[in-house]
Design goal:
This is VCBS repeat-containing protein. Keywords: Signal. Residues 1-22 form the signal peptide. The chain has 237 residues and is mainly β. It has two domains: 22-120, no CATH class; 127-225, no CATH class. Helices cover 11% and strands 54% of the residues. It is built from two helices and 17 strands. It has helices at residues 2-21, 127-133; strands spanning 24-31, 40-48, 51-59, 65-74, 80-84, 93-101, 104-113, 117-120, 122-123, 134-139, 142-147, 150-155, 165-170, 176-180, 183-193, 201-211, 215-225. Strands 9, 13, 14, 15, 16 and 17 form a six-stranded mixed sheet that branches. Strands 1-2-3-4 form a four-stranded antiparallel sheet, with no helix packed on it.
């Protein structure tokens, strides 16, 4: 009797483990096209409602051109998928923005190589470039942001913050990405220290990425002051 109960328990545990690891192949998003061979699909194994793994990019409807990325992961928020020439060679590249862990977003770029399909490109982290080129300081009610020879300002009196002050925080973990007018852009939120536990947003650094032949780097930057009345202050979906 004891042996039978033990075997039943083992079978039950194995069955439960199998269900926990079960996954469903789903299409996260796609880029439509009138030409069937130019449609792009972003697919993954849905482990739970907020955990997707084993990401695949499919080009065309036949399922023959597949690019597998088993180490990419995605969370519960909508991913972004673009087809645009961001490398400047007149060939459309594939740009993917995933959210692995809230609110962190992961940027991936597949460069189109003439006659050879797509190849994942390297992306240089922007921290070093920003540290070298961006200076911020508070002058009365104004925050001055110096980027190279260009000066930008944000008026702290226009925000309902409690004692906003230095230091200013660059929230790299909240960086968002988008493709607009054929350009690959990044947005790094900038916050001011304040007495409240949350808030303090004063704007974002707008990054323009360029391809240097080996990797994507930040080619230029600007500062966009926060407008609390603008519902689409950050990139629209």
């Amino acid at each position: 009797m004891t042996r039978n109960l033990w075997m039943a328990l083992v079978i039950l545990l194995l069955g439960t483990a199998g269900k926990a690891e079960a996954s469903e192949r789903v299409v996260l998003t796609s880029v439509p096209s009138e030409a069937w061979h130019q449609r792009i699909y972003l697919m993954a194994d849905q482990i739970t409602w907020m955990d997707y793994r084993n990401v695949t990019v499919q080009v065309g409807d036949m399922g023959q051109v597949l690019y597998h990325f088993p180490h990419w992961r995605h969370g519960k928020y909508e991913p972004k998928l673009y087809a645009a020439d961001v490398s400047g060679d007149a060939l459309e590249d594939i740009i993917i923005v995933l959210n692995r862990d809230r609110p962190r977003r992961d940027l991936h770029i597949l460069n189109r190589i003439a006659g050879h399909g797509y190849e994942e490109a390297k992306i240089e982290p922007p921290q070093q470039t920003i540290a070298q080129q961006v200076k911020m300081q508070k002058n009365g009610k104004l925050v001055t942001v110096q980027i190279g020879k260009q000066t930008y300002t944000a008026d702290l009196s226009s925000y309902d913050y409690v004692n906003p002050r230095e230091p200013f925080l660059l929230a790299f973990e909240l960086t968002d990405y988008a493709v607009q007018n054929g350009q690959l852009l990044g947005a790094v939120p900038v916050y001011a220290e304040q007495d409240a536990a949350t808030g303090g947003l004063i704007g974002y650094l707008k990054l323009l990425y360029t391809w240097d032949g080996k990797k994507y780097t930040v080619g230029s930057m600007s500062f966009v002051p926060y407008d609390p009345k603008d519902d689409l202050f950050f990139f629209p979906s």
